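dude i think i finally got it to work??
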Amino acid sequence: MGTIRRDKLRKLYSRLSPGTPLTSEDLSALGISADLAVHYVRAGWLVRLARGVYCHPNDRPALHPSIALLERSYEGLHVGGKSALDWHGIRHYVSQRPLLHLYGWKSGHLPEWFTQRFPVEYHRKRQFEERPDALLHVRFFGNRKGEPLVSSPERALLEVLSEVGVRQSLQEARELVESCYSLRADVLSELLKRCTSVKTVRLCLLFGRELSQPWADKIDPSQLPRGSDRPWVARLADGILVLKP
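look at this
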């Protein structure tokens, strides 16, 4: 029995990439039962992060595999907004430990084992006409399977604009639009056509024109959902925002 346990442990360690947390389901797939997992924890061969979540005792969970694990439990979870822009190299600020912005469809809170290790803000958003298992222009980071899902730069910018007046300042949003001069007009146009936020559509068009972005002239406003003929008005912390149709 002891030999079998050690064999299973060696098999686990050989397949465990550095910084990768595991679930009970992962252990079960390797032939490690719940009782055996408890034995490994008591013996110091595994560390229990939370109920049903484990890691190597000498290896703290890394960000990318930890996000990938969360994606299994949270519908539509992906790296978006300012974090996705930053991962794509689009930024106007430098931060030693920036806040991670995760987007998903599920209400609730991220688990403590994750939030205690990584500064994070979770946004529950349904901003586009899409399915959570087929998100528009969301791909594995670096197109490498197993990496976290990340918004394209075009989607990430619209996710930032959707937060203006809520958790995002107008000035910073404008500065980010200014940095997004290389966006793909066809991708941005597709996303705007399926965007459910009139504010986001109008704000994108407004900033694009004001900043003379190359992609702005390639988007046909008549094909976009811009709402009624009435202006969209909101009082923000940094002034009053008026978005005309």
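The chain has a mean pLDDT of 88.
im so relieved honestly
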